Amino acid sequence: MYMRKTMIVLVVTILLIFSFPTIVFAAPPDNPTPVSDFSSQQILVKFKSGTSLPEVAEIHRQLGGQVKETIPGIGVQVVTVPKGQAKEKAKAYSSNTKVAYAEPDFVAEALGSPDDPGFGNQWGMVKIQAPQAWEVTTGSNSINIAILDTGVDLDHPDLADRLISNIDFSGSATADDVYGHGTHVAGIAAAITNNGIGVAGLGYSSTIMNVKVLGDTGSGAYSWIASGIIWAADNGAEIINMSLGGSSNSSTLEDAINYAWSKGVVVVAAAGNSGNTTPSYPAYYANCIAVAATDANDAKASWSNYGDWVDVAAPGLNVYSTLKDNGYGYKSGTSMASPYVAGLAALVFTTVSDANGDGKLNDEVRSRIEATCDDIGVEGIGSGRINAARAVDSVPVLPGKISGQVTDVNGSAISGAQVSDGSRTALTDALGTYTIDNIPPGGYQVVASKEGYQSSSWTVSVLQGTTAVADFSLNQIINPGSITGSVTDVKDGSPIVGATVTDGTRTALTDASGQYIIGGVPEGTYTLTASAAGYSTSSQAVSVVAAQTATVNFALTKLAPPPPELLWVQSITFVVTGKNLGLNINVVSASGAVAGAQVAVQLTNGVRNWNFTGTTGSSGTASFVVTRAPAGSYVASVMAITATGYTWDTTQGVTSASYTLKSGRGKK
To answer: Does residue 223 have an active-site annotation?
Structure first.
């Protein structure tokens, strides 16, 4: 399933980059005003690795774009362009060879509730056997579910004590749920269970991170969503739920999904309510569990999206859960199905172990959920409808296999080749075929190798009781030669230690005497390049003869040290948690988030001053807290920022921000 989804996404991405088709969104029933397909004056741009800051600045100058902010973790810049020119400017940026991709800042919206007949209170929990699952595990309050939505009712009696963080990327005046969608979603995933009031959340003991990425009308920019994903992944989320979707593919959004997956996060998203196979994003992406909706009779809801890109299904018709303003009620949609899977993931996290030794559990959690679904005989909903009891059952999951063939580039079988998944190894037979048995479900990098051939690798996903196929075609190494020589300073001839020398495929570093050697080089002509920190790069052509050594010496010119890079404060954000007032200072440069910067901040409420100092983390954010903060008006001022190799540019970004803390718990 993972491979097929990835291949389809690549095709759609290419078409979108060049054609930017018209995008249609399903408007929520209580928001009849159509939502724009994308921002008319904002685009998303990512430059290729190695593009210098002056080159970036010159491209922006030529094309008339101004950098508004940089999404940390994936290096995508949010760029402001003249109003109404988003599509044209995105095309112009895409045509530049220094740009990896550029696209409009598309808009997603909460997937709404169709008007369908009602069913009994929380019938879905019984259908997926949640009570039986809770007999095995009630999860853990160390498992955090990030709800990326319209916000969560901060005072709801069934949610308030589960909230551990509140942050707003939508530009709303509050992280509270004004629109009324996110609160319902949060209750399904993690309402307080067994407390004598309200409803039960499938995640039982899990906690909620309220990450508001959709505004108070139920829609939001892809850049808001991407920023929310990165923030959640960097701040302790094990699961991210997105009951939202847009009809436009986005490299920015996919980069953010892949970033979260690489950090060990299970990412879940609603498949959409169009009633067809049209992809909804971000659910369509390979590293996201796409969730369709079923009814109480285990039939697919008529309005639910489906197709070979959908992974699982869950109850989604007339689901009873929490509502804003401390209420309870019914809603329908794949938006309601998605948090069932998020809540189940929270339970499964407490029952799995790192079977493939990659240091993360998200692949085991996803495999367990998909492998234990009930087959309800419905096409187009992936593995079937989730079953919580089976997913957390302590019965061992059936192992899978990896099988395939190893040939040379001419298609001839290679016998005796070694194929390994990192822990287990098999040798190919006379036909070049192999099988690796007893592999726990999960993702693996499989490597095929044999003396005299170049090794090859392939990434596969092994599901319970199934066989993943990985075929290899190896290039033969015929009488390789080598390249040797020295790298010295052009001024005094002194050796340069640790210089990199590469022929484009193979690389060597110089030793203490400035010498290097590159072995195993096939016969042919190559461009050899030498580089070292603080020196200019030099290239020379070299011809390598089989079984012989070619000599290439380099003399590099020392460069003047670069000027300090500019940094600035991208945002000052106030976060209310209980009776505490938090302050987040985000520091960035043109190349992204700045970690390790020393930040000095003064916070005053007109009566008392608080002076803080702290260091930014990997996301570029330094955080401070005033415990039991009194109500009143606060002003935060950045007094100083210092970081090695940087200069604070006070003409960019912000240096102060104000906030009024009202009486009342958790309210903005």
So the answer is: no
